[in-house]
Amino acid sequence: MHSPLSLQIKCSVCLSDFTDPVTLSCEHSFCRECITGHMQASLGPSACPECQRPYNKEDLKSSRLLRNMTSTVREHLAERKSNRSTSKEGTQALNSPEMEKMLMCSEHDEKLKLFCETDQKLVCVICRDGDKHKGHVFKPVKEAAQINKGELKTALGFLAKENGQLDYMIQQQTTEITKTEDKSKTLSAQISAQFEEMHQFLQQKEDEVKKQLEKEEKKVIEVMQKNQSLINRRFMENKEKEIILQSALEIEQPDHFLQWWNEKGFPMTKNMKQKAAETPSNTQ
User: Fold this and answer.
1) Nearby residues of 174 by Cβ (< 8 Å), 6 or more positions away
2) Does the keyword Cytoplasm apply (predicted)?
């Protein structure tokens, strides 16, 4: 059975992972080879295999974002498969003296049965009664793990919301860039037609106007492409964080999860909460 992640990178034509993905004007994506073959096999006008909307060769736009996401998901799924293949060995390792030592308090040689909510770390009962943790709040590891996994789910919710906004912004930027390019092409054609009727003096003026138009077009598109690049990078960073947090939810041992939470999870989700508080709730 395919995982939800693997289904996101499947081409609906060949049912395999995307290879050189392209996106149509209707926003459905396919392998370039698959959609090209589909177009060549069509007897009449080509229609999208998903929604039947007409398209032509000029509508095929390379999707670097989808290509990068496919690569990231493949690596993640390969890592998960490797982890599952060694799960039996990992279970045996949990009962080994070495693992038992890892879950013991290095200061008091007692089992780490509690989680200090104040310091966000595993402690033993002797640590709890010491001056270092005086007045702190403690939870049993199982209860603390459930609470903090809830924090992870909330963090994933933040990511999903922000990624939805980022995806919308990416689509808007792509649309605006296309409109600007189309408008520029139309203006260029109109200018050429008008100056075609004039003599050599006006030919020089035509060249000057075209150069200015190209300069303005380049200036506008460079700004838009820079914005799109920043949004794409933020989107991919969030996707990588989403994969990391999703994998953390699959950690079954509460103490191991809390060790991860102390080292990586808590700082990451804290930073995400701060960003969520600073980010407007709606994209205008």
Assistant:
1) 228
2) yes
- Distance, CA of 108 to chain centre: 43
Query: Regarding the domain delimited by 4-82, which CATH topology (the fold level of the hierarchy) does it fall under?
Result: Herpes Virus-1 (3.30.40)
pLDDT, averaged in runs of 10, over the chain (284 residues): 65 88 89 89 83 88 84 77 57 48 79 92 91 92 91 87 85 86 88 77 84 92 93 92 91 92 91 81 50
CATH superfamily of 96-136: Classic Zinc Finger (3.30.160.60)
Angle at 92 between CA 86 and CA 97, to 5 degrees: 130
> pTM of the prediction?
0.35
Alpha helices in the chain (DSSP H): 4-7, 32-41, 64-85, 87-94, 97-102, 125-129, 141-195, 200-248, 254-260, 266-278
What's the rounded Cα separation, in Å, for the pair 144 and 116?
A: 9
Question: Which amino acid is residue 150, in one-letter code?
Answer: G
CB < 8 Å & 24+ apart, contacts of 93-99: 94/253
- Domain range list for the chain: 4-82, 96-136, 142-278
Is residue 127 packed enough to be buried (19+ CB in 10 Å), middle (13-18) or exposed (0-12)?
buried
